[in-house]
């Protein structure tokens, strides 16, 4: 399981640094992950995508090191000098691999898939059922090198016709196991699309409170945009920001503007 953040808009250098430091601290000690899964930390790699929304520039960086093993200066150096003040999408992720899932660069988020309509990047907190994503199992050595999130990105990329549609996302959510908190960026042409939101399963037992606290996603206001952040990041490390929870089953789709469409799923 994982901690993730997705930023959309124009941000100052200090704001981008603040977000990455919050992710680092949340990955080092996650009380919500510990309560639900016994995961004190998220140490199976980290990654970041920063892309200008006009399609002019991007950076995609991944490491199998724990993000909390990096010092703050090193993390700040990853942020490109052109990013502050430019309208961007930033997706950052710290990973705790599920049992049996490979720990390698290909499975470190943001994962990447190609489509005829552009490059698709995804960050994910939760788990998908591989067999529902078309995984052939042991018959395919390539799929064995990748995690369920990469398979989800490939499956979504194969459905797209121009843009990610509500139906495309609904089809992907049918493969959800424990949860599908997602950030997806489709980069192609001069109008990037970003879809971000929250979907997770509640089972009606005495663990639902822990599930809710762990999977809850927040939207936090910044002067030039918005940041969507996992609960540990928003509640424990972004206390000065105006944050409100995103409903379970709610996704926001941005296409080349600050406005967004709201998609809701059961």
Strand order of the largest sheet: 3-2-4-1-10-9-11
Could you give the distance between the termini? 22 Å
Shape: globular
What is the number of strand segments?
A: 13
Tell me briefly what this model is.
By secondary structure, this protein is of the alpha+beta class. It has 8 helices and 13 strands. The protein has helices at 13-28, 31-37, 72-78, 141-144, 148-159, 166-173, 208-215, 231-237, and strands spanning 2-10, 46-52, 58-63, 87-95, 111-115, 118-128, 176-187, 193-198, 217-222, 225-230, 242-246, 250-255, 260-264.
How would you explain this protein's 3D organization?
The chain is α+β, with helices and mostly antiparallel strands and 266 residues long. The chain contains eight helices and 13 strands. It has a seven-stranded antiparallel beta sheet. It has a six-stranded antiparallel beta sheet with strand order 5-6-7-8-12-13. β5 (111-115) and β6 (118-128) form a beta hairpin. α5 packs antiparallel against α6. The radius of gyration is 17 Å and the shape is globular. The two termini are 22 Å apart.
Give a topology summary.
Blueprint: E1 2-10, H1 13-28, H2 31-37, E2 46-52, E3 58-63, H3 72-78, E4 87-95, E5 111-115, E6 118-128, H4 141-144, H5 148-159, H6 166-173, E7 176-187, E8 193-198, H7 208-215, E9 217-222, E10 225-230, H8 231-237, E11 242-246, E12 250-255, E13 260-264
Antiparallel strand pairs: 1-4, 1-10, 2-3, 2-4, 5-6, 6-7, 7-8, 8-12, 9-10, 9-11, 12-13
Helix pairs in contact: 1-8, 2-7, 5-6
């Amino acid at each position: 399981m994982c901690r993730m953040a997705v930023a959309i808009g124009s941000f100052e250098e200090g704001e981008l640094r603040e977000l990455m430091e919050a992710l680092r601290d949340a990955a080092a000690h996650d009380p919500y992950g510990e309560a639900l899964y016994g995961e004190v930390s998220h140490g199976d790699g980290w990654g970041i995508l920063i892309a200008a929304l006009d399609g002019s520039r991007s950076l995609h960086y991944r490491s199998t090191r724990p993000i909390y093993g990096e010092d703050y200066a090193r993390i700040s150096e990853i942020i490109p000098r052109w990013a502050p003040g430019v309208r961007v999408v930033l997706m950052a992720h710290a990973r705790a691999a599920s049992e049996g899932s490979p720990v390698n660069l290909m499975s470190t988020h943001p994962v990447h898939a190609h489509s005829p309509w552009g490059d698709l990047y995804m960050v994910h907190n939760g788990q998908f059922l591989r067999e529902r994503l078309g995984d052939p199992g042991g018959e395919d050595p390539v799929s064995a090198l990748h995690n369920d999130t990469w398979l989800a990105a490939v499956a979504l990329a194969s459905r797209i016709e121009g843009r990610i549609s509500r139906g495309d996302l609904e089809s992907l959510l049918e493969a959800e196991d424990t949860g599908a908190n997602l950030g997806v960026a489709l980069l192609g042409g001069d109008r990037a699309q970003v879809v971000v939101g929250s979907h997770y399963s509640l089972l009606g037992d005495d663990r639902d409170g822990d599930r809710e606290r762990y999977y809850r996603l927040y939207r936090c206001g910044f002067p030039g945009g918005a940041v969507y952040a996992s609960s540990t990041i928003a509640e424990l490390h972004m206390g000065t920001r105006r944050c409100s929870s995103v409903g379970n089953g709610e996704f926001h789709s941005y296409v080349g503007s600050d406005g967004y469409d709201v998609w809701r799923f059961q």
